[in-house]
Known about the structure:
Elements: H1 2-18, E1 21-33, E2 39-42, E3 73-76, E4 78-82, E5 94-99, E6 106-110, E7 116-118, E8 123-132, E9 138-145, E10 151-159, E11 165-172, E12 177-186, E13 190-201, H2 214-222, E14 227-230, H3 234-237, E15 260-261, E16 277-278, H4 284-294, E17 297-302, H5 322-336, H6 342-349, E18 360-363, H7 369-386, E19 391-395, H8 403-415, E20 419-426, H9 428-433, E21 447-455, H10 464-479, E22 484-489, E23 493-495, E24 506-508, E25 513-515, H11 517-526, E26 532-538, E27 541-542, E28 549-556, E29 561-568, E30 574-581, E31 591-598, E32 617-622, E33 627-632, E34 636-643
Parallel strand pairs: 1-30, 2-14, 2-22, 14-17, 17-18, 18-19, 19-20, 20-21, 21-22, 23-24
Antiparallel strand pairs: 1-26, 3-6, 4-5, 5-13, 6-12, 7-12, 8-11, 8-13, 9-10, 9-12, 15-16, 24-25, 26-27, 26-28, 28-29, 29-34, 30-33, 31-32, 31-34
Helix pairs in contact: 5-6, 7-8, 10-11
Amino acid sequence: MKYFGIILTLVLSFQFLQAQEKFAVDVQKVGSGIQPDMYGVFFEDINFGADGGLYAELIKNRSFDFHQPFVGWTPFGDVQVMDESPCFDRNPNYVRLNEKGLRRGTGLENVGFTGIGFKQNDNYNFSFFARSLTENEMTFKVILVSAENENIGNAEIQVSGKEWKKYSAQIKATATSAKGKLRLILQTAGEVDLDHISLFPAETWKNRENGLRKDLVEALYELNPGVFRFPGGCIIEGNTLETRYQWKNSVGPVENRPLNENRWNYTFDYRFFPDYYQTYGLGFYEFFLLSEDLGAEPLPVISCGLACQYESEECVAVGDLQPYIDDAVDLVEFANGPVNSKWGKVRAEMGHPEPFNLKYLAVGNEQWGEGYVERLIPFMEALNKKYPEIKIIGTAGPTPDGEKFDYLWPKMKELKVDLVDEHYYRSPEWFLDNAERYDSYDRNGPKVFAGEFASHHKSRNNNMRAAISEAAFMTGLERNADVVQLATYAPLFAHVDAWQWKPDMIWFDNFSVVRTPNYFVQKMYANNAGTNVLSITMDGVNITGQDSLYASAVIDKNSSEVIVKIVNAGDKVHDLTVDLKGLKVTAENQKVEVSYLHNNVPEAINTLEAPNTIVPGQFSLTASDKGFSLKALGNAFYVCKLKILK
């Protein structure tokens, strides 16, 4: 009997370990609607995300207006920086080349952003503005130079006349070089002035002039973002008010957009980039146009008159805020105004007479304290008076809790902002522990914009553990879609050779793009957002970490699909049964399409050398009459879709 009892105990224990957890989804009890722009992306010009990244310009310091005007350039021969009678009044510097005919050579060489990537047989569009100081026609040779110092493409340009004119040539690369450079040689004796020396790949996103890097935009397009927040972040604030992002400087002819020192160039002494500037070539017009291309709602952020509070106490007195408020009001006119309005005309002249249909505007980034609140008030008064349809986004500060957060949220409710921007940069454990965060939020207060979030593993790598914790947390965002209406991971881009901050959703070098596990989590959510929330429970309660399991469910009324998202953040394999209650027609033998992200190693990452270590997989299941079963591996995220028969 003693041995029989032991055996019985072992059998029962084994059965318990293999017992199926049962999830219940009520398909008839359709909950709150999910905003079609719920899941999106946030762009900030950090990690060389704009110049040297998304913005396809290959020349660094093309107008010689960095504080050190030859940064990025190696001049040889007689080359001087000038500013008299410039070609562009807001970019006044240019260079004067004097070739004296001594055959020592006069010209310039540019190294681009960590080198210039040339691909064999690809075409490159070169241009500059020039004027001759002599009567003779002047000849320039333009050379694409490989890392091995070989000529892999060249063209000649003839310059004549004493007035500034634009000259251009297309050059085909005869070989591939990841870290090449551009060489420009004056071959005729005499003096010539040059400005705005530019080189773009001929193939950009939609082949636009002043275009964007095609492969990086394609990565964004695949995300199917509903909202696009830009242009930051901390660069909105600037280290000083002088270096804040000013949208009016970023529109109009690209050659005459004034340079700005990047907020991130010297913030971290261990990642110091004194050559990090903003040309504004990627400006607000381009951001709005990209939002339109992506099918995403544009969400610009503007300065509220406070420099970055982490680094400065500089601020604009409340009584002196009018120019900042005017900028905010004028931005709405630029985006939405008729072509006969002042700023609507600027948009139309840039090539887009139709309005961009701006709906959201964020005032300030992650400011805090009474100083922010008293500055937000006059912005809201002016915007609500002229554009009451615009949804205004306030901030809850830089952290998801604490004194600053606790002060700001009641103030945002009192002011009746439309959304409150919350930021979370926390450990994977925090994300796993906070899947219930919004279950108890006030359903009648302002809505939440999860404007910046990322799981920070102790390594700060974009690894599987971080991605899984974000997927688990996002089940709580989805379950509470009546409160949380927008969510954007941050930051978006990072150049592998020139980054200040990590983790980041997408890494790249001069040729390649690496989609991180975090990227795939965002893609799986955004491409399976659904239209309405459904209840999903285990033992009658929400699934928010019991035995490391997390889940949310939605219905897509447009496609008649039930979509169940399941995260197993632990190591143990779970046999799950998903019961669909309230089905009017049996689901028996229906296909359940499953996308999943899984890796047994929590620290696993994707790299340039192995970009597909962690990528989504797909398989299908056959449903029973009332649902389906799933074996959920450890450290995995699943999206399960079942079409409901009517």
